[in-house]
Fold these 2 entries.
Entry 1:
Amino acid sequence: MNPIVIAALTASLLSGCGTMDKMGGWVGGWFGGGVAKVKPAELVEFKQTVSLSRAWDVSVGSGAPFSFVPGSDGQAVYAAGKDGRLVKIDIASGRELARADIGRPISAGVGVGDGLVLVGTLKGEVLAFRSGDLKPAWSATLAGEILSAPVVGYGVAVIRSNNGSIYLLESADGKLRWAQSRSLPALTLREAGSLVMDRRAIYAGHAGGKLSALSLANGAPLWEVSVALPRGATELERIADITGNLAADERMVCAAAYQGRVACFDAREGQPVWGRELSSLSGVDMDARQLYVTDDHAAVYAYDRERGVNLWKQDKLRDRRTSTPLVLDRWVAVGDYQGYVHLLNREDGAFAARIGTDGGAIRGPMLALDRGFIVQTANGGVYAFRIQESGIRNP
């Protein structure tokens, strides 16, 4: 088990808590908290083969210890910080277009869709704002802390809380359509994994290593499979939670579990396609050919998405607490605990470019744009970067 995980879990058990706080660090040290037992790799020199340039940046206030991610409707970017600031940003210029000062702390966001922007709180509140002017649209109160961004679309908003429940609300007014609950293991990571939604189903990874598809219409289980099986003599050793990003398209759903596997399944029936032993806290991304995942020691892997063959591994970022990979045309981007973004060649994992931010950890998923991407740091910086194949400069 990762030494940082052991330290954080031990502290959690001594305090009598049933959840382990992954929010404060790579499990316990991402934003300066916790006790690190390993020394992160030093950055290596390399010749840049593509140029990264900063298009704009804004600040929305610190996100630590929570994991905030930016969202977009194609015209604007929406971002939030824990102190209750929600900002609408012009996607081209970085100019602030609207702002909502919510007046109380928030713990998750943002979800964008159906003309709405959603955030969540530790008290189970879901707050919806109109995307045009960020004026309040509706609110709803659910059970449990909300720690992951809501998913909005197809006329509904899907929310998950850390008590094991998933809720589906009507986008129009926030009324509850259905709720689906499940029991949790004795000890879990204190972060709810992301959700993926299409017109038919909601795909969710769970504590204990399960991956399920729920009917969008009524929440009924369509299928459930095991990405990982808890194993070991102690509750610490038996943690096998899926807390990172899922990747899905019309054919396939893929996930990775802590102390478990990375695996892909048929989206319709849940039949296994392939699986490989790997421990991950941050999840996966995929394109038409490959699946990308970072393990719990920050190595980045690429697998053939049809057969599960390991195509390459980039291990020169060891223990730099890399984020969920983001596929960007011919590159794969990952952030690290010092706020650096590393661009890797999709074909072989070689370093292609690197750029810094404000020094805050990059942990949540990044947002892909046309010829670029947006990242939010733990310090509250929101950065838009452009990828250019000319005018290359060394870092």
Note: The chain has one domain: 3-388.
Entry 2:
Amino acid sequence: MERINFKMLKVSILILGIMLSFPLFSQTESMGDMFELAKLKSGMKNRRISSTDPTGGNRDHLEPFKPGEKRTIAEIKGTGVINHIWITIAPPPGELSRNDIIIRMYWDGNDYPSVESPIGPFFGQGWDERYNYASLPLSAGPEEGTGLSSYFAMPFEKGARIEIENQTDKTINAFYFYVDYLEMAELPEGMGRFHAWYNHSLSKALPEGETEWALTGEWKPNTRLDRNYVFIETKGKGHFVGINYYVHSPTPMWYGEGDDMWFIDGEKTPSLIGTGTEDFFNTSWCPKEPFSHPHFGYPRVNNDIGWLGRTHVYRFFINDPIFFETEVKGTIETGHNNNLTLDLATVAYWYQDSAVKLPPAPSKEARKPKPFINHMDMHRWRDAWRKAKGNDPQLWGNE
């Protein structure tokens, strides 16, 4: 039994190295020993493209670019692996929405992106907000989530290109960045292509209403899996490695009874089914407290009544990727049987054998953040409830 466990441990560590730390370790070396850091490597050259001032001055940022403008910030020829990206932007959130600045990445000369997402959600910043966020492959901050970093390994064989589009209605005054990569003669065998896809949806309650926890109606099973929220759908061979999940709940009711369900390699019935949203993200009992772990956490939680408001939760499948041979569709319920109206956005991250075209991206209007529900809205709800109850002058609120 000990030999089997040891082999499984080495496989898990190897997967971590391939996905996140390839530049430091080869596919055949164990990652469990810090002495590996001292091993000298050959056949690779460090390269960097950055926003440094070419005159030698201190204007180390791109010149302002206007609403609607696109810019290629990195165009790389040949073969290599991007192993680090850092970005910061001015003005900051609140003045310039990172939900409307789009990052796209193109691999191997393709004219379509295999990474497409608003830049904030890609790096772990939901809506138009700023807050510190730290995971193993991605981080935001300090200062208050404005330094955006990625350590995902992003291999390419026939070139790479990174594009930024300003879909805001304001000018980006300053855009600072590093793109660090390794240049090499050829990629090791079996290196997949990195993908990331942003999706967004305002889910629909059932005709009988938002019956969560059977408070307003009978609890019924989910027989319509096609109504689940989809966060990854792709064809090819690969493995899923992570998700940033942004949920805005317009009700104080717990939003997270929904189970994750995975349809792998053409399945009609999901082979992987979870037990609840918080369980999928390695947490428990309807949490609403900040928590950070390299693989999962809650960097932003609502501070409203119950679970009303915005929550950001993430999970990276470092030791436990979800593998697929021909296709995968990853979904999650919105409420225990898709019975809640939720404003959901996700960024899914995965590798597959070739760089493929992503599903269509949500439009600027479709992904526009919903406004907060506040105390005045609640008072209007109370007024409607009082009138529905006969408007007795001493109605309390939980009759």
Note: Residues 1-32 have pLDDT under 50 and may be disordered.
